[in-house]
């Protein structure tokens, strides 16, 4: 049996060779398979969009790179590949070096040796250190000319700003997301807001839809593995990360809230209703939801109401960060779209192409558009998501007129790929998801 590029995942000759050797050999064993799978995941991460983005930033910018994103999205693997020195706060030996202060880290990294470029150092999970900001400030200010610094963490590194940001001007934030359609098609960095469409083969699309974009379940393609992976990740997040890094005591009620939110991805979040369901105060629910967002379990999309008559202003919509475990096709489609759009707006912002945001619109007459992408304070394009084929929603034209958005798209998840530029059209139009998402980041 031979593997070809039409499977959408393993296209290089080296990857084919590894799979032929380990997967299709009758005498293979589990350890061999696991080792080669880890190697293939590593090779895939090397070709990610973020690899080129961070490599360029470390070459041209003096600022530290704060790399944040969901658990197991590939932050550590990516940054280690770009680094010369790796220090992990969870490693006792590495922790001892960090606690020794900037001079101890500099000695460990060999900063007193002549080199043709600055040393690249990764500090992994450093935000678990109570004095991490003071440490970084001192280290950066002392050794800025000799070092380029990456700092990674599963929780948002900017969550810990209290009483002012002592690192102002010393870092850029890079928000890492799982694989999406555009990145699978083209991992290179582009300064264009959107690119020409490119087809992702049917097998790759189906794997992304069923298993999500996190590297390991995406590449393994096993329903049993994906289920176990999701449960383990959820348990580690809710019972370990949040327990260890926040002051939340009622973890059982917190877990119940997380389960309830997992069942309503894409729905409006009514804090008072959720508070009654789990028997805590509304302020507690607001705080707990903010914690889930900070740890990348989910995210909020808030309403856009500027220049929209009778628009809702308060209730945000809640979305999971991983669509693969959502059973309802409509909910999964909307969450799939939300995750792709969030990656796009954060990617465009992190690239310095403008200030972008993701919102939705709904008015008191119950007219609604699922998403509106905001560019530099103004609506740029509207998005309505449909899992199946359906007629063009009249709400797109209505809200495009209200907001003066340049484009209005109705995304059809089941439509076949079309090799045409969605952004050439200004009037409301139905476009295939396979085409539209390939043009984003």
Describe the structure in your own words.
By secondary structure, the chain is of the alpha/beta class. It has three domains: 5-46; 49-175, P-loop containing nucleotide triphosphate hydrolases (Rossmann fold), CATH 3.40.50; 181-439, no CATH class. It is built from 17 helices and twelve strands. The chain has a seven-stranded mixed β-sheet with strand order 7-6-8-9-10-11-12, with helices on both faces. α16 (394-403) links the parallel β10 (378-386) and β11 (407-412). α1 packs antiparallel against α2, α6 crosses α7 (132-143) and α13 (271-278) crosses α14 (282-294). Residues 1-10, 12-16 and 21-43 have low confidence and may be disordered.
Q: What's the story with the biggest beta sheet?
A: 7 strands, mixed
| Global morphology | globular
| Mean of pLDDT | 88
Which class do the helix and strand fractions yield? Answer: alpha/beta
Order of the strands making up the biggest sheet: 7-6-8-9-10-11-12
Write the H/E string, N to C. Answer: HHHEHEHHEHEEHHHHHHHEEHEEEHEEH
Q: Which spans of ≥5 residues are poorly predicted at pLDDT below 50?
A: 1-10, 12-16, 21-43
Total domains: 3
């Amino acid at each position: 049996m031979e593997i070809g590029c039409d499977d959408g995942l393993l296209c290089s000759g080296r990857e084919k060779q590894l799979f032929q050797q380990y997967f299709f050999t009758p005498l293979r064993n589990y350890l061999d398979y696991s080792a080669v799978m880890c190697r293939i995941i590593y090779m895939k991460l090397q070709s990610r969009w973020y690899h080129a983005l961070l490599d360029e930033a470390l070459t041209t910018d003096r600022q530290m790179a704060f790399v944040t994103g969901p658990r197991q999205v590939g932050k550590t693997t990516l940054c280690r590949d770009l680094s010369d020195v790796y220090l992990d706060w969870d490693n006792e030996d590495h922790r001892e070096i960090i606690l020794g202060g900037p001079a101890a880290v500099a000695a460990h990294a060999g900063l007193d040796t002549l080199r043709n470029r600055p040393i690249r150092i990764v500090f992994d999970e450093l935000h678990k250190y109570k004095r991490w900001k003071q440490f970084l400030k001192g280290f950066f200010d002392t050794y800025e000319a000799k070092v380029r610094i990456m700092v990674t963490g599963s929780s948002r590194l900017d969550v810990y700003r209290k009483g002012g940001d002592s690192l102002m001007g010393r870092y850029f934030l890079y928000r890492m997301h799982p694989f999406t359609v555009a990145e699978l098609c083209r991992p290179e960095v582009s300064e264009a807001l959107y690119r020409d469409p490119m087809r992702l083969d049917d097998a790759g699309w189906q794997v992304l839809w069923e298993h999500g974009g996190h590297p390991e379940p995406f590449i393994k393609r096993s329903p049993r593995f994906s289920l176990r992976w999701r449960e383990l990740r959820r348990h580690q997040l809710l019972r370990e990360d949040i327990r260890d890094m926040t002051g939340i005591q009622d973890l059982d009620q917190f877990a119940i809230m997380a389960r309830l939110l997992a069942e309503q991805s894409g729905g409006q979040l009514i804090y008072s209703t959720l508070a009654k369901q789990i028997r805590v105060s509304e302020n507690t629910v607001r705080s707990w939801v903010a914690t889930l967002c900070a740890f990348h379990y989910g995210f909020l999309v808030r309403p856009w109401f500027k220049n929209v008559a009778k628009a809702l202003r308060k209730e945000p919509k809640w979305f999971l960060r991983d669509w693969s475990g959502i059973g309802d096709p409509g909910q999964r489609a909307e969450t799939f779209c939300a995750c792709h759009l969030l990656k796009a707006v954060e990617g465009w912002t992190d690239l310095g192409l403008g200030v972008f945001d993701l919102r939705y619109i709904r008015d008191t007459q119950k007219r609604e558009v699922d998403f509106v992408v905001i560019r530099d304070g103004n609506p740029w394009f509207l998005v309505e998501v449909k899992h199946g084929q359906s007629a063009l929603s009249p709400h797109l034209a209505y809200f495009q007129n209200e907001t003066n958005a340049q484009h209005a798209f109705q995304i059809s998840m089941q439509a076949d790929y079309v090799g045409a530029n969605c952004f050439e059209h200004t009037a409301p139009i139905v476009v295939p998801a396979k085409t539209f998402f390939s043009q984003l980041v």
